[in-house]
Design a protein that fits this description.
By secondary structure, this protein is α/β, with parallel strands linked by helices. Helix content is 23%, strand content 29%. It folds into 2 domains: 56 residues, Roll (Vcp-like ATPase, Chain A, domain 2); 195 residues, Vaccinia Virus protein VP39 (Rossmann fold, 3-Layer(aba) Sandwich), CATH 3.40.50. It has 7 helices and 15 strands. A hairpin with a 5-residue loop joins strand 5 and strand 6. It binds S-adenosylmethionine. S-adenosylmethionine (SAM) binds next to helix 3 and strand 8.
C-alpha cells in the first residue's frame, strides 16, 4: 500500500496528485492507490494510467485494457479499515458502529481502549470523540503499536493531537487515568476490572469485545461479582447484505457472520456507598433455581 493523503469523500475538489483513491470494480473489489502524475495502476485486468483520474471528479470511471470498469472515489473509513495493514485482527465497521452506539461515545469525551491492535477501532473512536475529545490507546506489543500508529497517522495525515498511544499493560495505564468510556478488545478482561473501575467514574460505560461466548460468560460473572458495575448486557451484531437486482431480490449468499460479542456495563458505586444491590442470580444449569 502506498503513502498519500486521505481527502474527505464528497469534497467538491477534483482528484489531485498525492491523494489516495479507492479503485472499485463491478465485483466490489477495491484497491487503495495514491495518484501520481504519470503514474500507472497495475491490475489483473491491465494497467490504468493515473492521468485519466487526476483533475477529474470523484466517481470518475475508467476502463482497463481488458474492458474492466473501475471507479475512483476518495476512501471512506470503511475502505481504510478493510484494506489497511494488519498486525492483529481488526474490529469490523459493523462492530465499530455498535461499540460507539452501545458505549454512548460522544464528541468531547475521553475514551480509553485496549489493545490498540491494528488501530481500526481507534479510527472510529477518534471520529466519535471529535476534535475536542481524546482517545488513549494501550497496546502491550510494540510491533502491533507500530502498525496502529502507521495506520492512524496515514489516515489522518499525521498523529492526531487528541490521540495518546501508550505501549504497556492495559491495567497499568487504566489505573492512572480518568476517562468517560473504556473499550476492551483483548482476550482476558477480568484482571483489568479493578483498573477499569478506577478509570471510570460512576455512570461511565465499559464495552468489551469478545469472540467467544465462554469469555462473555466469565466476564459477565466477574462484572456482577465486582459490585461496581450494573446493567451488564451482551449483544451480537449481524449485518446481512442483500442482492437487489431486478427480480433477484434476496439475501446475499455470503456474509461476515460471527465476529464477536459486545458486553456493555455501567460503572456504579458499591452497594455500601449507595449503589444498586447485586442482581438475583440463577443457579447453574440443571439446578432448581430459576
Ligand atoms: C484483537 S487485537 C485489537 C484490535 C484492535 N481493536 C483493532 O481494531 O485494530 C488485541 C490486542 O490487544 C493486545 N493486548 C492483549 N492483552 C493486553 C493487555 N493486557 N494490555 C495491553 N494490550 C493487550 C494484543 O497485543 C493485541 O494487539
Amino acid at each position: 500500500m502506498s503513502a498519500g493523503r486521505f481527502g474527505v469523500p464528497g469534497d467538491r475538489a477534483p482528484l489531485a496528485a498525492g491523494e489516495v483513491v479507492v479503485l472499485r470494480d463491478a465485483r466490489g473489489r477495491r484497491s487503495l492507490v495514491t495518484l501520481e502524475d504519470g503514474g500507472t495502476w497495475h491490475s489483473n485486468a491491465g494497467a490504468v494510467p493515473h492521468d485519466g483520474l487526476i483533475g477529474r471528479p470523484e466517481g470518475t470511471a475508467v476502463r482497463t485494457p481488458r474492458g474492466t470498469e473501475v471507479v475512483a472515489l476518495r476512501p471512506t473509513r470503511e475502505d481504510m479499515v478493510l484494506k489497511m495493514r494488519r498486525g492483529a485482527q481488526v474490529v469490523y465497521p459493523k462492530d465499530q458502529a455498535m461499540i460507539v452506539a452501545l458505549g454512548d461515545v460522544r464528541p468531547g469525551m475521553h475514551v480509553a481502549e485496549a489493545g490498540a491492535g491494528s488501530g481500526a477501532l481507534t479510527l472510529a473512536l477518534l471520529d466519535a470523540v471529535g476534535p475536542e475529545g481524546r482517545v488513549t490507546s494501550v497496546e502491550r506489543r510494540e510491533d502491533h503499536a507500530e502498525v496502529a500508529r502507521a495506520n492512524v497517522e496515514r489516515f489522518h495525515g499525521g498523529a492526531p493531537a487528541r490521540w495518546d498511544l501508550r505501549i504497556g499493560e492495559a491495567a497499568d495505564v487504566l489505573a492512572g487515568i480518568a476517562v468517560h468510556r473504556v473499550v476492551l478488545d483483548l482476550p482476558e478482561p477480568r484482571p483489568l476490572l479493578d483498573a477499569v473501575a478506577t478509570a471510570l467514574a460512576p455512570g461511565g460505560v465499559l464495552v468489551t469485545y469478545l469472540p467467544s461466548i465462554v469469555q462473555v460468560a466469565r466476564v459477565t460473572e466477574a462484572l456482577r461479582d465486582d459490585g461496581r458495575f450494573a446493567d451488564v448486557a451482551t449483544t451480537e451484531t449481524l449485518v446481512r447484505p442483500w442482492d437487489v437486482d431486478g427480480p433477484a431480490v434476496r439475501p446475499a449468499h455470503r456474509m461476515v457472520a460471527h465476529t464477536a460479542f459486545l458486553t456493555r456495563a455501567r460503572r456504579v458505586p458499591r452497594v455500601e456507598d449507595g449503589g444498586p444491590s447485586a442482581p438475583r442470580r440463577r443457579g447453574p444449569v440443571g439446578s432448581d433455581v430459576d
